[in-house]
């Protein structure tokens, strides 16, 4: 059975292949960007959910009932995501939805889930997903605002007070740029240069040259997503800019190092998750056993390295399956209440403590400040 599909018809076949009327007891829906420009997010997410549902069913399901995963590939298109979310609710009659590989697809799914009062766990980063709080919408990745705060904390430690920013104009980049500007003053840091680039741009030399020539700049921050940050990193090296470069958690994966090139990426810092540095975690780290288990299972099944993004799906499943077990029933309202009551749940991304006011449940301690050295990840002390 294929994991990633390119058409609505094939997506429907995938859904039917994973869930039939005869076997479905607890129907879980998902719409992910398994193909298209955000496939580096959606593909490991889809693989993760398939693997975890398979494992759960082999162990007897949830509350003694089999789980049926109805999975669609929206290709990163918000309109398709809305269509699939509607189908999941109206036709497939799911009790919960996991998905939204990007902020754009997430917001489309959320509108459907809220109207239908179906719990929805997003895998995207923007703070607007959970702020303001929507009754049925949750998420697993840190917010872009938190990423800004983690980066500025590190800059403070390095006594950096003046920076340049070069941000993507995509939904993620624009949101993080706005969040960074909103909190930067709390850390005594000034933005002296502020440049942008489009998602399709293939060279950012002009913008980086302006930043390089701006007096007083001590470091550069790139709120970005997709291929843009890799291009920025390569251009940064080509221009021989001898200043610290910070990237966002949106590129916290080995794929970023490969695209940028290990030499160009050397020294880049960004906030990431424990999943990127499993071998560096202390034996008593609360996340270590979860990280090790997910990494071993995923890499054993698919023969490909785990990614932060697959980890977001892993955590969404942990939260949802724990909620269904705790609720003791597969009623959407009961599941929603149980998700909101989640406390002390260790995932690959952090320790989740949800509440009525907090539908993320992570704080800054969940982020690890990482630096790329010799083509790999290291922990910044």
From TrEMBL:
What positions does the domain Leucine-binding protein occupy?
Answer: 25-361
A single GO BP term for this record reads:
amino acid transport
Secretion signal span: 1-24
One Pfam match: Peripla_BP_6
Name of the protein this chain belongs to: ABC transporter substrate-binding protein
**Family to which the UniProt record says this protein belongs:** Belongs to the leucine-binding protein family.
Keyword set for this entry? Amino-acid transport, Plasmid, Signal, Transport
| UniProt key word Lyase | no
Highest taxon of the source? Bacteria
């Amino acid at each position: 059975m294929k994991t990633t599909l390119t058409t609505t018809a094939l997506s429907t076949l995938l859904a039917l292949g994973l869930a039939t009327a005869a076997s479905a007891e607890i129907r879980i829906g998902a719409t992910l960007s398994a193909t298209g420009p955000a496939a580096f997010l959606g593909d490991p997410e889809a693989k993760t959910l398939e693997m975890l549902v398979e494992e759960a069913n082999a162990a007897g399901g949830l509350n003694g009932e089999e789980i049926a995963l109805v999975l669609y590939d929206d290709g990163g298109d918000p309109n398709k995501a809305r269509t699939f979310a509607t189908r999941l609710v109206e036709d497939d009659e799911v009790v919960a939805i996991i998905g939204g590989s990007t902020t754009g697809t997430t917001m489309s799914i959320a509108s459907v889930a809220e109207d239908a009062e179906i719990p929805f766990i997003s895998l995207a980063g923007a703070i607007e997903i959970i702020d303001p709080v929507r009754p049925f919408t949750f998420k697993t990745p840190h917010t872009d605002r938190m990423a800004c705060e983690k980066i500025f904390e590190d800059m403070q430690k390095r006594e950096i007070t003046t920076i340049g920013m070069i941000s993507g104009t995509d939904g993620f980049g624009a949101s993080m740029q706005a969040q960074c500007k909103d909190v930067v003053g709390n850390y005594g840091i000034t933005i002296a240069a502020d440049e942008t680039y489009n998602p399709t741009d293939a060279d950012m030399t002009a913008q980086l040259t302006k930043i390089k020539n701006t007096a007083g700049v001590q470091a550069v921050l790139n709120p970005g997503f997709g291929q843009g940050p890799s291009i920025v990193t390569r251009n940064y090296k080509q221009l021989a800019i001898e200043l610290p470069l910070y990237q966002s958690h949106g590129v916290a994966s080995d794929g970023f190092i490969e695209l940028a090139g290990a030499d160009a990426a050397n020294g880049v810092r960004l906030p990431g998750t424990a999943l990127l540095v499993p071998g560096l975690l202390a034996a008593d780290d609360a996340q270590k056993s979860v990280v090790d288990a997910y990494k071993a299972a995923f890499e054993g099944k698919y023969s490909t390295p785990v990614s932060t993004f697959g980890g977001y799906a892993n955590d969404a499943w942990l939260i949802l399956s724990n909620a269904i077990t705790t609720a003791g029933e597969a009623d959407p309202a009961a599941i929603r209440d149980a998700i909101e009551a989640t406390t002390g749940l260790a995932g690959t991304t952090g320790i989740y403590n949800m509440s009525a006011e907090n539908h993320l449940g992570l704080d800054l301690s969940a982020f690890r400040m990482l630096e790329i050295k010799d083509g790999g990840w290291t922990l910044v002390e």
